[in-house]
Structures are given as structure tokens and as C-alpha cells.
């Protein structure tokens, strides 16, 4: 299906390239409009690529991150917009320090929700993507991204809410993006074992093998085939050069092996206003452009 609109809401620049990027790139290539909404400027992200940790880069980090984001969007074939909130940073220490004044996670929910509702009413997405209630990763901006997305999904279609934010539009579905699939790594490991080679992501696997952690696959409702778009995903991620070490673990499993063993990305249908059958293989399943079902 083409001619539909997909909106992905993300906390920081680079999140769009590590979560659901192959899926977005595929839907864009198939003739749909895809918009990434980036809630914050990523101002408090550390430089994670040793090669980029230089004074020339550090001094203009905000500008650099905007350039990186533009390049990543170009590679994925998607549009992108900023909501203009300020990165809350990942608090570290014991006890945890208070969040910095004025940061996104401290903005009243009503205020950030209205800002997102405005973009939803302009772009009129059929489907939205966001994070689950745990943020997929315990960063205050990721948790807040979930809260704002869910509140805006509900409010955007209600003309009584935020009347100054444009005419009402109710997106049909909203999904959580599930990136950390343990089974995927286990299958990669089995392939390395077969080849008699050490598995380079063993440390990650061990971290997820703790018995108290369930497998998020139990929550997945929807798998999107997008192996052909993994190269775009990786190139987009590398475009965020200050955030991503090109020699890091993320790129260590060869592309052809990933495409063969696990060519999909995983989503959980969180709310829907249309009828659909689970499991799904298409985010737009059940949606028609003329409003019929
Ligand atoms: Zn993030």
C-alpha cells in the first residue's frame, strides 16, 4: 500500500536510526510519507565516537547534531522536524542528581502534548510509532516520549482539546517499537557457533540472560520485513557520527547474516481505532485512505 502517512516520535536525534529505521525507510521507498518528530535537540548526549571527540566538534555540538540528523533523514528518505525541547540528560550517580531546570522531562505534560498534537494535526498520520512505558531504555526523555505520544494520540482527534492546535485528526494506530529482541541475538550466536567463531555480542547476550528479564517478543504483535533496508539503517546511524562509534558492537554482525537470520523489525500495537488481525506484517493493516474498513 502507498500514499499513507507514518509518524515516528523520538526523544533524541539518532534514536530514529536505531529504532525502526529499516521499517521507516521501506515505507518511504514504497511511496508513503514518513515523518520523524524529534522531541529534543540531544544537547546533553555524550560524544561516543573517540574520533569525533575533538574541540572543533565539541564547541559546535548542537549545530553538528542538526547536520547529522539532516543527513540521516536524507539517507532514510524521510522528513524530519524538531519539537524544540531540551535534552534532560541521563542522570547518573547515587543518589541520582535532580533533572536540570527547563529540560524536556520537566516540561508540564500538557505543554509538550499540545506541541505534538499540533504536528499530528498538520501531518495527519495514519500510524504513529513511539516507545513503550519503560522507554525501551531508562532515559527520562524516553519515558516522557512515551507519555507525550500516548496523550497526543488521544487528544489529537478531539476537537475540544487544544483548539488552537489545528483541526482534529485521529491517527488510526499507535505502536511501540521493540528493538532489543533476545531471540535475535541467540540466533546470531547459534550461527557463530556453527561456524566455530566466537560471538562478538556475547556480553550483550549475557546481560539479557538474567532470569528476571522476560523476552519482549511476547509483546510483539507486528513484524515488518525490511532486511533490504538494513544498509540504509546502518548508514543513517553512522551519519550520527558523534554518537555512534563505527567500530562499535552495533555493526559487528555481518549484514548478509542479519538479512538472512532476522530480516524484520518488531512492533507492539498499543492502540488501534481500526480492526486488524494479530499477528500483523504491515503497520497499515486495516487502514484505508477513504475511511472505510
Ligand atoms: Zn535517546
Automatic annotation (TrEMBL):
SUPFAM superfamilies: LmbE-like. It holds the Pfam family PIG-L. It catalyses: mycothiol S-conjugate + H2O = an N-acetyl-L-cysteine-S-conjugate + 1D-myo-inositol 2-amino-2-deoxy-alpha-D-glucopyranoside. Keywords: Hydrolase, Metal-binding, Zinc. One of its GO terms (molecular function) is hydrolase activity, acting on carbon-nitrogen (but not peptide) bonds, in linear amides. Gene3D superfamilies: LmbE-like (3.40.50.10320). Binds 1 zinc ion per subunit. One of its GO terms (biological process) is mycothiol metabolic process. Zn(2+) binds at residues 12, 15, 142. Its EC number is 3.5.1.115. Its cofactor is Zn(2+). The keyword Hydrolase applies. InterPro entries: GlcNAc_PI_deacetylase-related, LmbE-like_dom_sf, Mca. The keyword Glycoprotein does not apply. It comes from the Bacteria. Residues 1-23 are annotated as: Disordered. Monomer. Belongs to the MshB deacetylase family. Mca subfamily. A mycothiol (MSH, N-acetylcysteinyl-glucosaminyl-inositol) S-conjugate amidase, it recycles conjugated MSH to the N-acetyl cysteine conjugate (AcCys S-conjugate, a mercapturic acid) and the MSH precursor. Involved in MSH-dependent detoxification of a number of alkylating agents and antibiotics. This is Mycothiol S-conjugate amidase. It comes from Antrihabitans cavernicola. The lineage of its organism: Bacteria, Bacillati, Actinomycetota, Actinomycetes, Mycobacteriales. The gene is mca.
Amino acid at each position: 500500500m502507498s500514499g499513507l502517512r507514518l509518524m515516528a516520535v523520538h526523544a533524541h536525534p539518532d534514536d530514529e536510526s536505531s529504532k525502526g529505521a529499516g521499517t521507516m525507510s521501506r515505507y518511504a521507498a514504497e511511496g508513503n510519507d514518513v515523518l520523524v518528530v524529534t522531541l529534543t535537540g540531544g544537547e546533553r548526549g555524550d560524544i561516543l565516537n573517540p574520533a569525533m571527540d575533538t574541540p572543533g566538534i565539541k564547541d559546535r555540538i548542537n549545530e553538528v547534531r542538526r547536520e547529522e540528523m539532516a543527513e540521516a533523514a536524507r539517507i532514510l528518505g524521510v522528513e524530519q522536524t524538531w519539537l524544540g525541547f531540551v535534552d534532560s540528560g541521563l542522570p547518573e550517580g547515587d543518589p541520582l542528581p535532580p533533572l536540570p531546570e527547563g529540560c524536556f522531562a520537566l516540561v508540564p505534560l500538557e505543554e509538550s502534548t499540545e506541541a505534538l498534537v499540533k504536528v499530528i494535526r498538520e501531518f495527519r498520520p495514519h500510524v504513529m510509532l513511539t516507545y513503550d512505558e519503560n522507554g525501551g531504555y531508562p532515559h527520562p526523555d524516553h519515558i516522557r516520549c512515551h507519555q507525550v505520544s500516548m496523550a497526543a494520540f488521544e487528544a489529537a482527534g478531539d476537537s475540544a482539546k487544544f483548539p488552537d492546535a489545528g483541526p482534529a485528526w485521529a491517527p488510526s494506530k499507535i505502536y511501540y517499537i521493540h528493538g532489543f529482541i533476545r531471540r535475535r541475538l541467540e540466533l546470531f550466536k547459534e550461527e557463530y557457533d556453527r561456524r566455530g567463531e566466537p560471538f562478538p555480542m556475547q556480553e550483550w547476550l549475557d546481560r539479557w540472560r538474567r532470569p528476571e528479564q522476560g523476552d519482549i517478543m511476547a509483546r510483539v504483535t507486528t513484524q515488518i520485513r525490511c532486511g533490504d533496508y538494513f544498509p540504509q539503517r546502518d548508514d543513517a546511524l553512522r551519519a550520527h557520527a558523534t554518537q555512534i562509534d563505527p567500530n562499535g558492537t552495533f555493526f559487528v554482525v555481518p549484514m548478509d547474516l542479519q538479512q538472512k537470520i532476522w530480516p524484520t523489525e518488531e512492533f507492539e500495537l498499543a492502540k488501534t481505532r481500526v480492526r486488524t488481525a494479530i499477528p500483523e506484517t504491515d503497520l497499515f493493516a486495516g487502514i484505508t485512505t477513504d475511511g472505510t474498513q
